[in-house]
C-alpha cells in the first residue's frame, strides 16, 4: 500500500461503522496492535548528521531496513539513537522516500554509490519515481557498458577452453587479440589494396610500343595482371571460406553485408573463368568486371569510419529520399518552364523536356557546364531563377545529412536504450501490477493464513502462527480486517479470478443437491451465513470439543473456507463464521466426491458421534473412519 | 542558415506566460485552508492534543492545501478496495463528512467526523450512520436511498466474489433491512426507529465498538 494511503487507513476503518447497521453477520475481530499508541521521534545519526523522523513514517515500509526490526542492530543505547556509518548525502533521498513515498535519484550522485546505499537500506531501485527513473537507468547502463568494456578487454586474454572454431572467429572479429590475427588482418588489407590498384592501373595506357597504338596496361601485360588477379581472388576466397567456417551462425553470416560484399568481389573472376571467350558474352563479361570495384568495400572491415558512414546513409535513407523527391519536383518544373521558354528559339538544345532535365540539374547544382544555355530572354530569366533556387534547394541536404549523422549516432545509442528500457519498463509494470494486485491477493492469501492461524491458536502451536504472520505488517492486517468487514457486511467473499471462473463453471455445470436446509441455494448467501451460525449454536455443550488434540497429527495443511467442527467457544464464533463452507463448495464436495483434489485437514473429534453428526454441517456421508474419530474434510 | 534567427524567440512571450502563470498561482493560492487552533478542536472533539497533532500531520501530508475535494477523496478511498468500485460509496461518505456541503472536506470536518466515529457515544455513532444513509437529509431513510447505499456497498466487492453478487442481492438486503428496522411499516425508517432497533441488536452494538482503538 502506498505510504500516503496508509495515513488514511484509520479513517477508512472508522468509516466502516457505516456498514455495521446493515450487516447481518457479525464482524471479525480487529487485529491486535501490540505497539505503543502514541508516536515518537526517532533520531537517525548518519555519520554525524542527525535526521529525525516519526516512527510511523519509517514503519510504512516494513520490508526495508529502517522499517523493520533490523534497525535495532544499529541502536546505540547511550545516545538513544540509531547510528549508521553511511553517506549522509545519499541518506537524504532515502529518508525522503519514507516521507513522500517517492524515491528520487539525485543527479550529482555516483550511480554505484547510490546503488550500494539502496541495497544497504533494503530499497529496490525499481521504485524510483518516473521523474528520475530514466536518468537512473541511463547512468546505470553507461556504467554497465563501461564495466563490460573493461571486462571484454580483460577477457581477450585467452579463455582456456575455446574451440578452434571459436578462436578463429574471435581472431577474425578482433584482430588485435593475437599476432596471427593481426598478421592476417594486414595481409588481407594489403591484398585488397593491391587488387584495387591493379584494377585501376589495368586501364591506364602504358607506354606506346612502336608496333601498337596506345593500349591499356591490362592488355599489354595480360599475364601479369591475370596472375595478380588470381592471387588476390585466391586470398579472398580462402578468407571467405575461413570466415564461413568460423562463424557461429553460418546462415546469419551469409546474410550479413560484409559477406555479400566478399562474394560480389570474387564472383566475377570465377564467372570469367567459366565463360569462354565468346564474343556475345564478352560484353557482359566486361560489365561483370565492374563489380571488381566492390573489393574496395572490403576495406570497411578495416575502417570504422566507413562503417559509420554506410550506416548513416542507410539510416538517412528516408530523409534523402524525400529530398530527392522534392528535387525531382523542382527539376521537372524548371525543365518544363525552360523547354517552353526556349521553344521558340532556333537551333536550341532544349529539344524536349527530358533533354532540359540535364540543364536544370547542372544549373541547380551550380555546376554550369555550359553545354546547354538558354538564348531567349524568357529563358535567361527563368534560368537565373532556376540557379538561385537551386542554391537554396541544394544547400538543404548538407546540414540535414550532417545533423543526421550526429542524430544517427545518438539515435543508435537511444535505440539500444529504448530496447533496454522497454524490457525494464515491462518488468517494472509487472512489478507494479504485482504490488497492486497483491493487495487483494495478499488479502486472499492472508485470509487463508488467518483461518489456519485461528486453528493454530486453538491448538496452541505458536511457531507456526508466527511463521505465517511474519510477512504481514500491522497496516496490512488492518487493511485486511477492513476488507473482511466488508465481506461480512455483504455476506459475500472475495475470491481471486481463477477461483471465480472455476466456481462459475461449477455452478453452471453441476446441479448440486442440497443436503441440509442450511445450504439450500434458495437461501441467499445471507441466509446461509447466519442460519449456519444459528445452527452452530445449537449443538449441545458437551460437543464443544476442542481442536487442541489435533496438533498430535502435526500435519495440518492449508485450510480455507471450510469448517466442520461445531464445538465452538463463543469468542471464536466470529472467526468460525468466516470458515463457513460456500454453497458451491458443497456442490463440489457432493458431486465430485472422488475428485477432491485439495488439501485435507484431519480433525479428531470427541467420542460422541451423534452430537457431531447432528451438529455437523458437512454432509453426513463425508464422515469416515469412525474408528479413528477423524473427520476428513476437504477444503479448497 | 535561417536568415533571421531572432524571429523565433520573441522577447515578449515570456512576459505573457509569466502573467498567465501568476494568475493561475493566484487562483491556486486562494484554495487553501488553515484549520482552527488546536484548542478549539480539542474542545469540539474527543481527541487528545497528541492525537489531533498526529491526525493533522497525516492529513496535511496527503492534502497540503488543507482541503480534500471529492475526486481526491474517491481516489484515496478506492485504493482500499482494489477489487471493486468504491467511488459511489466514497461519494456518500464524502457527503457524510462534508457537513456544510461545500464540496470539500476541511480538517475540522474530518476530525469532527472521526471523533464521532471513534470516540462518540453509541447513539452518536448510530446517528452518524443514519446521516450517512439519509442521503437527502430529510430525517428518514427511504427504500430508494437505502438501495443506493446498498448497491454502492456491493459495488465495492467487485466481480470476483463467492457467491457471485446477483442483481437483486442489494434489494433483498434492503428488504431485510427494512423488515428489521421499519417498525410501523410506513415504508421509511426514521431515526428513532433506527436507533431503537440497533440498540436492541447485540451484533450491531458489538460491531460498532470494534473500531474504538483505531487511532
Automatic annotation (TrEMBL), chain A:
<dbReference type="InterPro" id="IPR024587">
    <property type="entry name" value="K_chnl_volt-dep_Kv4_C"/>
</dbReference>
<comment type="subunit">
    <text>Component of heteromultimeric potassium channels. Identified in potassium channel complexes containing KCND1, KCND2, KCND3, KCNIP1, KCNIP2, KCNIP3, KCNIP4, DPP6 and DPP10.</text>
</comment>
<feature type="transmembrane region" description="Helical">
    <location>
        <begin position="381"/>
        <end position="402"/>
    </location>
</feature>
<feature type="transmembrane region" description="Helical">
    <location>
        <begin position="320"/>
        <end position="341"/>
    </location>
</feature>
<dbReference type="GO" id="GO:0008076">
    <property type="term" value="C:voltage-gated potassium channel complex"/>
</dbReference>
<dbReference type="InterPro" id="IPR005821">
    <property type="entry name" value="Ion_trans_dom"/>
</dbReference>
<dbReference type="InterPro" id="IPR028325">
    <property type="entry name" value="VG_K_chnl"/>
</dbReference>
<keyword id="KW-0813">Transport</keyword>
<dbReference type="GO" id="GO:0051260">
    <property type="term" value="P:protein homooligomerization"/>
</dbReference>
<dbReference type="Pfam" id="PF00520">
    <property type="entry name" value="Ion_trans"/>
</dbReference>
<dbReference type="Pfam" id="PF02214">
    <property type="entry name" value="BTB_2"/>
</dbReference>
<dbReference type="GO" id="GO:0005250">
    <property type="term" value="F:A-type (transient outward) potassium channel activity"/>
</dbReference>
<feature type="domain" description="BTB">
    <location>
        <begin position="38"/>
        <end position="107"/>
    </location>
</feature>
<feature type="signal peptide">
    <location>
        <begin position="1"/>
        <end position="16"/>
    </location>
</feature>
<comment type="similarity">
    <text>Belongs to the potassium channel family. D (Shal) (TC 1.A.1.2) subfamily. Kv4.1/KCND1 sub-subfamily.</text>
</comment>
<dbReference type="GO" id="GO:0097623">
    <property type="term" value="P:potassium ion export across plasma membrane"/>
</dbReference>
<keyword id="KW-0732">Signal</keyword>
<feature type="transmembrane region" description="Helical">
    <location>
        <begin position="180"/>
        <end position="201"/>
    </location>
</feature>
<keyword id="KW-0472">Membrane</keyword>
<dbReference type="Pfam" id="PF11601">
    <property type="entry name" value="Shal-type"/>
</dbReference>
<dbReference type="GO" id="GO:0001508">
    <property type="term" value="P:action potential"/>
</dbReference>
<dbReference type="InterPro" id="IPR021645">
    <property type="entry name" value="Shal-type_N"/>
</dbReference>
From TrEMBL, chain B:
<keyword id="KW-0106">Calcium</keyword>
<dbReference type="GO" id="GO:1901379">
    <property type="term" value="P:regulation of potassium ion transmembrane transport"/>
</dbReference>
<feature type="domain" description="EF-hand">
    <location>
        <begin position="169"/>
        <end position="204"/>
    </location>
</feature>
<dbReference type="Pfam" id="PF13833">
    <property type="entry name" value="EF-hand_8"/>
</dbReference>
<keyword id="KW-0633">Potassium transport</keyword>
<comment type="similarity">
    <text>Belongs to the recoverin family.</text>
</comment>
<dbReference type="GO" id="GO:0005509">
    <property type="term" value="F:calcium ion binding"/>
</dbReference>
<feature type="domain" description="EF-hand">
    <location>
        <begin position="121"/>
        <end position="156"/>
    </location>
</feature>
<dbReference type="GO" id="GO:0005634">
    <property type="term" value="C:nucleus"/>
</dbReference>
<keyword id="KW-0407">Ion channel</keyword>
<dbReference type="GO" id="GO:0008076">
    <property type="term" value="C:voltage-gated potassium channel complex"/>
</dbReference>
<dbReference type="GO" id="GO:0015459">
    <property type="term" value="F:potassium channel regulator activity"/>
</dbReference>
<dbReference type="InterPro" id="IPR018247">
    <property type="entry name" value="EF_Hand_1_Ca_BS"/>
</dbReference>
<keyword id="KW-0479">Metal-binding</keyword>
<dbReference type="InterPro" id="IPR011992">
    <property type="entry name" value="EF-hand-dom_pair"/>
</dbReference>
<dbReference type="Pfam" id="PF13499">
    <property type="entry name" value="EF-hand_7"/>
</dbReference>
<keyword id="KW-0677">Repeat</keyword>
<protein>
    <recommendedName>
        <fullName>EF-hand domain-containing protein</fullName>
    </recommendedName>
</protein>
<feature type="domain" description="EF-hand">
    <location>
        <begin position="85"/>
        <end position="120"/>
    </location>
</feature>
<dbReference type="InterPro" id="IPR002048">
    <property type="entry name" value="EF_hand_dom"/>
</dbReference>
<keyword id="KW-0630">Potassium</keyword>
<keyword id="KW-0631">Potassium channel</keyword>
